[in-house]
Amino acid sequence: MIDNKQVKEILFGLGADLCGIASIDRFHDAPKGYHPTDVLPTCKSIISFGCRFPIATLHCNSPVPYTKVRNSITSKIDAMALDFCIEMEKHQVACIPIPTNESQWDENTKRWRSIISQKHAAQAAGLGTIGRHSLLLTPEFGSMVWLGAVLCEQELECDELKDPICDNCNACVNICPLNALEHSELNQQACWEYAFGEDNTIQSWVISCHKCRDICPYHLGTENSLTKK
């Protein structure tokens, strides 16, 4: 049987910068219809992994580099998750990949959701903790990490949960041009409609706002060497 260490070695070999594992019992509060066993009834473990996102994209006057990197890294992570599932079958373990950037409408909560929340899976797997801005913060990379996840039929050893990094300074709340963080739950629709869409000047689809990410004092984490310059 494959173990926690071997799982991580496979994902690191595929290009992951972070990897953690959560047991199914850490998802007891998942929304109805979005629990791992709602997707894969035989799921016993959730494997979360992340790839670092280049920080200089936050410093650009043009939205194009950030947008291009985000789109490219999404495809990269989806490919990594697929390759990992194929590799796991060689060890007689069945897994399924969770799409990195696909959402469906949840009529119960009136929100768009991934079939399994990537950031909640990452938190449950000990990669980091969710901040006031609703983004995952990791010690190594802050919020500058993109996430992937795989549901696994084998029971694996869990990783320890991380202590919170966010200190609720409310910098993200105050800088949001839409007050989308005014309440404890992000006003998702307002955020998406403002930040994502066609730029009429350059006639291209771009991500035009990431102010909450920029302003966070921990957006590079607490252990990133770039924060120590």
Write the layout of secondary structure elements.
Layout: H1 4-14, E1 18-23, H2 36-39, E2 45-52, H3 64-89, E3 95-98, E4 104-106, E5 111-113, H4 118-124, E6 129-130, E7 136-137, E8 145-152, H5 171-175, H6 188-195, E9 196-199, E10 204-207, H7 211-215
Antiparallel strand pairs: 1-2, 2-8, 3-8, 4-5, 6-7, 9-10
Helix pairs in contact: 1-3
Structure summarized in a few sentences:
The protein has 229 residues and is α+β, with helices and mostly antiparallel strands.
Describe the structure.
This protein has 229 residues and is an alpha+beta fold. Helix content is 29%, strand content 19%. The chain has seven helices and ten strands. It has helices at residues 4-14, 36-39, 64-89, 118-124, 171-175, 188-195, 211-215; strands at 18-23, 45-52, 95-98, 104-106, 111-113, 129-130, 136-137, 145-152, 196-199, 204-207. A four-stranded antiparallel beta sheet has the order 1-2-8-3, with helices on both faces. A two-stranded antiparallel sheet has the order 4-5. Strand 4 (104-106) and strand 5 form a beta hairpin. Helix 1 crosses helix 3. 31% of the residues are buried. The mean pLDDT is 95.
